[in-house]
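Lab notebook, bench 4. Continuing the backlog of folding jobs that were queued last week. Each job is logged with the same field layout so the records can be merged later without manual cleanup. Today's entry covers UDP-glucose 4-epimerase, a 322-residue chain. Filled in by technician R.K.

JOB TYPE: sequence-to-structure
TARGET: UDP-glucose 4-epimerase
LENGTH: 322
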Amino acid sequence: MSWLVTGGAGYIGAHVVRAFAEQGIDAVVIDDLSSGRRGFVAGGTPFVQGSILDGQLLESTMAEHDVQGVVHLAGFKYAGVSVTRPLHTYHQNVTGTATLLAAMEQSGVDRIVFSSSAAVYGTPDVDLVTEQTPKHPESPYGESKLIGEWLLADQAKAAGLRHTSLRYFNVVGSGTPDIYDASPHNLFPLVFDALLDGRRPRINGVDYPTPDGTCVRDYIHVADLAAAHVVAARRLDAGESLEPVYNLGSGDGVSVGEIMTAVAAGTGIAFEPEIAARRPGDPARIVASGELAARDLDWRMRHSLAEMVSSAWNARQAASGE
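JOB STATUS: finished
OUTPUT FIELD FOLLOWS
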């Protein structure tokens, strides 16, 4: 018996696969390598290169590896780009999820942990986001993740699917030096790339209604995130009930200015950030309560901001051969 991890060659997915292995849970990875990296998948873990849009491949993989559950991380994850590529985003994220659920039903696989996103909330008008905060996604990406949650809920009613969705916020750090965040859109990679290129990292906006004028976000360590997936999978395997959605948040935000200070300290590279104008649509603050996940998924912040920075920097340096 094993768990299928879609998108398991990505930054987050590869950490989830490693966390499963550490807990003695067999996993098989399917990934089309559009953004994932084959080298992120640990040796000994079965790997299938292919798309979640290929229902026959999904069914044959589930049969061959005796799959009992799915962690669904595959998808097009660039919120900003999704605004200019809405049809691509919906095809990958909505049609892909529907295809996966159909293959699961056909294969008798009845449990799934879904990678959702804080993007379902849009720009919340509360200081602390909870699972009940109104959903107002502001991009096709956020909309596609909310639709994914609806698909799971509808399939649960129709076919008895056991499921939970984990809404991620800003995932950073590294649990192992050979897996790093290579996204061209995330803050940590952007800052590290600037430093390695001899450029000044940029802050977009310093006039927000926050203590230091920069945006406040909820940063969580990828290894902590992966550990929550293990607990969710085990509880579904045990037939225990879970909430349909959980926020994986810290409850305490960190500003972009504070991130810059922590990066300077963690890398040993002193710099003054370049100040640029606000980006349209950037809310001043998004911070989430993780109380529900703490109750049910042993969710907690096991890593400090300094550890988030140092682990991410070490992995990034290892990747560049420095």
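OBSERVATION: The chain has two domains: 2-171+219-248, 173-217+250-288+302-320.
SIGNED: R.K.
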